[in-house]
UniProtKB/TrEMBL annotation:
Matching CDD domains: CBM6-CBM35-CBM36_like_2
Boundaries of every DUF1549 domain copy: 199-408
Gene3D superfamilies linked to this entry: Galactose-binding domain-like (2.60.120.260)
Coiled coil: 429-463
Domain Golvesin/Xly CBD-like: 472-597
Keyword Lyase: yes
Taxonomic lineage from the root: Bacteria, Pseudomonadati, Planctomycetota, Planctomycetia, Pirellulales
GO MF: lyase activity
Keyword entries, A-Z: Coiled coil, Lyase
Source organism of this protein record: Rhodopirellula baltica WH47
Pfam families noted in UniProt: Golvesin_C, PSCyt1, PSCyt2, PSD1
The protein's name: Xanthan lyase
KW Cell wall biogenesis/degradation (keyword) present: no
Domain DUF1553: 699-952
Superkingdom of source: Bacteria
Length: 986
């Protein structure tokens, strides 16, 4: 058998001689050999292996998700200072779980199933922690951590860390000499920086120093595809490609750059980049996946900001303290409030019973996000101890934590013990405000009338409440699955039963009675109404040999009294009455409590004359009609209500008497408090005072102003580096979220500083910086083959002498397929989640509110709901950002499963068929179709191999067995979608 990574020939794959790599696939899908052959050829027979990810991201995950759990639940029995070391196992140091205790090593990195620790916290062996099983999402975090290699930076034990870290004295003068803490330096640029060749001069300087030559400029088709995807996230249209190939001049290039920068697609694409860092999602995730009904407002704020080329420093200030900044109009005030969603949108353990801990967990998430997003620094681990590598002390951490602790993020509970976030009303126009007030007044007036009529009806109901024959559920005959309710009040007898909203068509309950006297009877049914009840409950009434089929709506409460009147019946004496409730075809919970038969035509022993009873019944009938009209008017009023006051996930400062400096939490424990630290900035950034003085509010506005100070050494550098990375594949500092000691140093420090100075000097404008980068030769370089000497001399392309293949983002890959299919809807979308319940997803499948917009929706992926824990597999397989985490740089993998996911996805196959139909409508023969497909999917002219593959496929027995040309071409298009050339930029 061939090696799993040995090259295969075209003939090998076609013949199925691919060893164990392909046999299972080709056996289960007849077209797979041909598709794999095509994918293999477009990959270039290269081994497809996952790229290594930085340990920094893994360490961050450990600090944020694993260490706090170990401290809270494990250190008491499994740390150096434990009174008795449980099972001889320490978990306060990496060596502890590596060596293990009485049962051997506690963790097998990469293999959760073989790890004793996992068995313990799953309660499969010893039950740890003994106080209670950890929440499911925490268990999943440990699984992920171990599966990803169990990265653990704790090389010393906790006692050593406390000695060497928490109580150490930093040499601040020495710490401030680190390159990232020094302001950008102006250097003698080889040419004026305003010229197009400024960037190239800095790059060439490094190449010359290393004795390397740059590659030539890439062909026009390659350059244009690169530019279109980098700036808009969409492919160039074939006509633009044709024109640029005919005239690839610098003037034409600059015109295209300006066209793309001015397009709405640019703002949408670069919004998605920012959303990665903002850990955007339309739900909370974690233990309580609550719906973020208003998150879309923040997304649209970003789109508008990028479209308007809002200065990045202003965007940062608004997202940290927009609510504290002056506003020029209601629209400006709305935008500034919505901007603070940035700090609100992270995942939270909303059902945490210890609300003090929850409050600090939210503060920690906000602080870590601000540090990594804007400073490229990790603050999270300083919650428990001084930073192990960077000059960030625990005092620094709590100085900044006090700022966010003096800010209201959470507000109230959505249900018992489950916290919810603050929802802030947004400004509206005076006309809107007046229409809402008028509507509320009308509604209140109707509600008063309805209440009065219902009160009169209740009195009349009591007067006509004749003694009836009542059959409780305990006396009824049940079939199928019924469950006793745990509800405490509002039922007849001892309780009631319900069908759990499941096993529809299998449950029924029969209430039998004998009606002793001849006369007119009302059939009444008792239940407690609710919105989750069945609105279409079938009720079968059998009176001797007559059967009547009725429908009961249990979402509506009884109009009078406690029973709902279904119908009146004329009955003979000794009538056998059987009432059957069934859950057949019902759309909610079916409630079965009691059935009552009441004779309403009067009896001598009732005390009132028959005439008086008849008059009362007539009055009740008239009032019932009045009530019906009033409720109809109310329904019409609600249907024509003015739009409600919009709300945003916007934070606010706490009242002045609640704002306070934060005490140090020793070892990060909320119950173990130390010195109080004044709110301020880390000491490494100031040689004088670090406290914010004077301080009028929480300190967020002061923090935002400090971050965006033109002289700040990090904020602009981090922004410039991220923009460079999105265009060049790697940042000038490759660890884009870590500019600290453990991060990489810049490959071109002078270039980074020059770009940063120019960026700040020209108003922090992103479009100008992007234009400068994409108009450089460095951006337009060609790729070279792996055997080129330049690759061996600079294998990681740190000197920027050539282009390297780059992954197209997952969202852009999907959008490109919609473009090819001709179905992309370019318009946006607002109320993604407005119709959803509190929870996006619940454990009970029947109440799970799934998203109504799926992958087959024609909108850009930006406008689809992004639900934590439910990212579509197609996007996840293509390395979409994890919305639980801040992702400054997405991982890039290129593994066979990605191509197979694309080939097998029902949505991709649908888009392939739509693309095929479009192609066949616009072409007449194979040659034209190859040219069309290459232009639309690859943005290039066809090559001889393209036509060879298509001819070979169409001549194959598998293709000939298909029923139509559309099917045959669909498989070919699907293979092109799955190819590396479609998913990557050269």
């Amino acid at each position: 058998m061939k090696s799993p990574f040995a090259p295969l020939s075209f003939d090998d794959v076609i013949a199925g001689r691919s060893g164990d790599r392909c046999c299972s696939i080709t056996n289960c899908w007849p077209t797979a050999r041909w598709l794999l052959a095509f994918v293999w050829l477009t990959v270039g027979c290269a081994a497809m292996v996952a790229a290594d990810e930085s340990n920094e991201e893994s360490f961050d995950f450990f600090e944020a998700r694993i260490r706090p759990v170990l401290i809270e639940h494990c250190y008491e029995c499994h740390a150096a200072d434990s009174d008795e070391l449980g099972g001889s196992l320490r978990l306060d140091v990496k060596a502890g779980w590596m060596i293990g205790g009485d049962s051997g090593p506690a963790i097998t990195p990469g293999d959760p199933a073989a790890s004793e620790l996992m068995a313990a916290i799953r309660y499969e062996s010893s039950e740890m922690p003994p106080s209670g099983k950890l929440p499911d999402h925490v268990v999943r975090d440990f699984e992920k951590w171990i599966r990803d290699g169990a990265a653990d930076p704790r090389l010393m034990d906790e006692e050593e860390q406390l000695t060497s870290s928490q109580h150490q004295e930093f040499d601040w003068d020495q710490a401030r000499q680190f390159w990232a803490f020094q302001p950008p330096r102006s250097s003698a640029s080889p040419v004026a920086f305003d010229s197009d060749s400024a960037i190239d001069a800095f790059v060439q300087k490094r190449l010359d120093a290393e004795g390397l030559t740059a590659t030539p400029i890439a062909p026009p088709s390659v350059r244009l595809r690169r530019l279109a995807f980098d700036l808009t996230g969409l492919p160039p249209d074939p006509e633009t490609l044709r024109q640029f190939q005919a005239d690839p001049s610098d003037t034409h290039w600059r015109r295209l750059v300006d066209h793309y920068l001015a397009s709405p697609q640019f703002a949408e694409h670069w919004t998605r980049h920012w959303m990665d860092v903002a850990r955007y999602a339309d739900s909370n995730g974690s233990d309580f996946n609550a719906t973020h009904h208003d998150a879309w407002r923040y997304r649209d704020y970003l789109v508008r900001s990028f479209a308007d080329d809002m200065p990045i420093d202003r965007m940062i200030r608004e997202q940290i303290a927009g609510d504290l900044m002056p506003a020029s109009s209601d629209e400006d005030r709305r935008d500034k409030l919505v901007a603070t969603t940035f700090l609100m949108i992270g995942t939270k353990m909303l059902s945490e019973r210890n609300k003090t801990k929850l409050r600090m967990d939210v503060v920690d998430e906000q602080l870590d996000t601000v540090g990594r997003a804007f400073l490229g620094m990790t603050f999270g681990c300083a919650r428990c101890h001084d930073h192990k590598f960077d000059p960030i002390t625990t005092r620094d951490y709590y100085a900044m934590a006090g700022i966010f602790r003096s800010t209201r993020t959470l507000h109230g509970e959505s249900q018992q013990y489950v916290s919810t976030w603050k929802k802030t009303p947004l400004p509206i126009s005076k006309q809107h405000e007046q229409s809402i007030r008028k509507h509320e007044q009308s509604l209140q007036g109707l509600d008063r009338e309805i209440k009065e009529v219902e009160s009169e009806l209740k009195i009349l109901a009591e007067k006509t409440e004749l003694e009836g024959i009542t059959i409780d559920d305990v006396d009824a005959v049940r079939e199928g699955h019924w469950v006793e309710s745990t509800y405490k009040t509002g039922f007849v007898g001892k309780g009631y039963v319900h069908d759990e909203n499941r096993n529809k068509g299998e449950a029924s309950i029969r209430f039998a009675a004998v009606l002793p006297n001849a006369g007119r009877y009302e059939l009444r049914v008792h239940y407690n109404a609710s919105g989750n009840r069945a609105s279409n409950l079938p009720v079968s009434v059998q009176l001797n040999d007559e059967t009547h089929d009725l429908i009961l709506d249990q979402t509506v409460p009884p109009k009078t009294g406690t029973y709902s009147v279904l119908k009146e019946f004329d009955c003979d004496a000794e009538t056998q009455a059987l009432v059957t409730l069934s859950n057949r075809g019902t759309d909610g919970y079916v409630i079965a409590d009691a059935v009552q038969w009441v004779q309403i035509d009067g009896k001598a022993d009732q005390g009132d004359s028959a005439a008086e009873i008849e008059r009362t019944i007539a009055m009740r009938t008239a009032l019932t009609q009045t009530l019906k009209k009033l409720k109809s008017q109310r329904a019409d009023l609600l249907a024509n209500a003015p739009p409600p006051v919009p709300t945003a996930m916007a934070l606010a400062d706490l009242p002045s008497d609640e704002r306070e400096d934060c005490p140090i939490h020793i070892r990060g424990e909320v119950s173990n408090l130390g010195d109080i630290v004044p709110r301020g900035i880390p000491q490494v950034f100031s040689e004088s005072t670090t406290a914010f003085e004077p301080l009028e509010g929480s300190g967020r506005l002061e923090l935002a102003q400090w971050l965006t100070d033109p002289d700040h050494p990090l904020t602009a550098r981090v922004s410039v580096n991220r923009i460079w990375m999105h265009l060049m594949g790697e940042g000038l500092v490759r660890t884009v979220d870590n500019f600290g000691v453990r991060g990489e140093k810049p490959t071109h420090p002078e270039l980074l500083d020059a770009l940063t100075i120019d960026f700040v000097r020209n108003g922090w404008r992103q479009k100008r910086l992007i234009r400068n980068i994409v108009c450089s030769d460095a951006y337009s370089r060609a790729m070279v083959s792996d055997d080129d000497p330049r690759v061996s001399l600079d294998p990681e392309n740190r000197l920027r002498g050539r282009a390297v293949r780059r992954r197209i983002p997952a969202e852009a890959t999907r959008d490109a397929m919609l473009v090819a299919a001709g179905t992309l809807d370019p318009s946006g979308r607002e109320d993604l989640m407005d119709s959803y319940a509190t929870l996006v997803s619940q454990n009970n499948a029947n109440s799970k509110a799934m998203t109504k917009f799926g992958l087959d929706d024609p909108k850009r992926t930006l406008y689809l709901p992004l639900i934590r824990s439910e990212v579509p597999p197609l996007l996840a397989n293509l390395d979409a950002a994890d919305p639980d985490l801040l992702v400054g740089k997405r991982p890039t993998t290129n593994v066979p499963s990605q191509a197979l996911t694309l080939i097998g996805s029902p949505e991709v196959r649908q888009w392939a068929m739509q693309t095929t139909k479009r192609m066949m409508n616009e072409t007449t023969d194979e040659t034209q179709r190859v040219r069309w497909a290459c232009a639309v999917l690859f943005s290039r002219d066809p090559r001889p191999l393209d036509e060879e593959i298509l001819h070979a496929w169409l001549d194959s027995d598998v293709a000939k067995a298909m029923s139509s040309d559309e099917e045959r071409y669909r498989e070919w298009i699907a293979a092109m979608f799955a190819s590396t050339e479609f998913r990557f930029l050269d």
